[in-house]
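note to self — DONT lose this again. spent like an hour looking for the file last time. sequence + predicted structure for the chain T wanted, 254 res
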Amino acid sequence: MQLRILGCSGGIGGNLRTTSMLLDHDILIDAGTGVGDLTLTELKQIDHIFVTHSHLDHVACIPFLIDTVGGMRNAPITVHATQETLDTLKAHLFNWKIWPDFTQIPDADKPFMVYREIRVGEPIELQGRRFTAIPANHTVPAVGYSVQGPRSALIFTGDTCINDGLWKVVNATRNLKYLIIETAFSNKERDIAIASKHLCPQMLAEELEKMRAEPEVFITHLKPGEGALTMKEVTQAAGRWRPRMLENNQEFSL
C-alpha cells in the first residue's frame, strides 16, 4: 500500500494545496485542492473518497471530480463519511443550487456518486486495506482515520483539538508507523486555535505527552505564511518526538 500526499496545507497560494491523500490509485482521504493536480487518467481510477469532515478545504474537489469523470466510469464513486457530514454535503453542496446532486445523475438507478455512512470504530475493508474512523474534536462533526496496511499502520488525525479519544486509538494501534497530526496555528494564535478547534505547537506538545506509541510524526495543516514559525515552535515544544513537516508528493508505504 502506498499513500501519496496530494495536499497538506491550511490554505492555498503558489504550490500550496489543501488536504487530500491518495491511497494506491483508487482511494482518496479527503478531497481538497490537491486533487486538482491529478491527471485525467488518475482521476478516472478513483473509486472511494473517505471524508473527515465537511469543511471546504477538505471537500472542495469532490464536485469537480464527480463532474469530470462521472460519465467516463462504469460505477459510481463512493463517498464515505459520518451521517452528519453526509447530511451537510447533501444540504449545502450537492443540492442543485451550489452543485448538482450527482446521486440522481444520470438517474437514481445508475448515479455518478453514492453515499455510504461510516461510524467511529467500525472498520471498512477494501481489497485488504482497512479504514477505521477515529475520534476528532473540531467545530463540526469530524473524524480522523486509521489506515491499516499489510505490514504497518498510519493514523491521520484530521482537523482536531484536544482529543483524548485519539490517543486511546493511537496507543492501542499495533505496528503504528506514522502519525500525521495537524498544527494549524502558531503559539501567538493559541486563542484562535482553541476557538476554531485546531492545535498550536504548545498544545501539540501537551497532546503528544499522551502518546505511548513511537511512530514517525508529521505535521499537517500549517497556515500559509506561518509554516516556518509554526514548525520552529513545534521543534522547540515537541522536539523529542522529532516531528517533521508533511509535504506534497510525500509517500508512505504501509
